[in-house]
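Sequence in, structure out. Go.
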Amino acid sequence: MSAKKVNTQQFPEPKVLREKNNFQNKSKQSKRSGAGGELRNPSPAPISPQVATQTHSADPVSPSTKDEIEKQSTAVWHGPNCPSCEDLASITKENMGRLQHHFKFGSIYSIYFRIMMALHTIIIASPNSNDYKKDSNIFYPKQAKDLCELSASSEIISKNQPELFKEAAKLSNELLGPTKSDKFNCDRYEDYLELLLKISQTIGADKDLVGDIDTYLKPFRPEPIGDGSIAMGESELGNDPRKWQETFLDLKHSPEDENFGYELKKIAEPRRNKASFELIPTGYVFKCHGLSTNAN
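Output:
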């Protein structure tokens, strides 16, 4: 069977997509007082990989002013005069690592199971699909692993690259649930993205899926992003904003979104607000994101 484009809209979205949105939208439920006692603006909705820059002004502006607004609203680091940047920079290196660990896990989990949906569609359409249970729940790690191993054994699907699918089968051991990130090795984030990109291209997956993986990989390319989406800077508070680029889609914000950084800081520092800290584990299997021991 030749590779073909697949339509995965018939399947429900992995729960992690909803969980990730809930994780980032917690700040919509509360506000913080800013200078002079005025309430800070609520945090913006999460930005998907394919969404372009968005302005917040209703007044007519010149093209040059609009370009500057767009550039500022999609930058990761605006400088110490941005309240959200100041709050994000004040997060300790350890806690920022844990926050980014969860963001990276969410990205890999959602991409992985979008690929599993595509493989499911391809296999059930194959005349030689008797070894596959068509009613399998691909969101169970064991069944996702079986799906990868079956794909590896098929020359038609694997295009003589079975090692890609065997590696994907191993990856299922780290993706045990949409909020269970303690067994995920975030230090291999780039490697996992490259693996999933190769698989998606091999099976002729939907262009939106391929495009989303490419977007997640932009910070790791020789010339990551040329539209101002990643702006480098140094923090005076000990946290290096240059590392933020690895999860730039989750940390993008406008300088006008003053509450954005504060709410993420509360999530990243559980001692300040334990009730809101439900998705990030307190211990990890792998020594990733800068850990020197198996638990932090």
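Check: The chain has a mean pLDDT of 74. Residues 71-276 form one domain.
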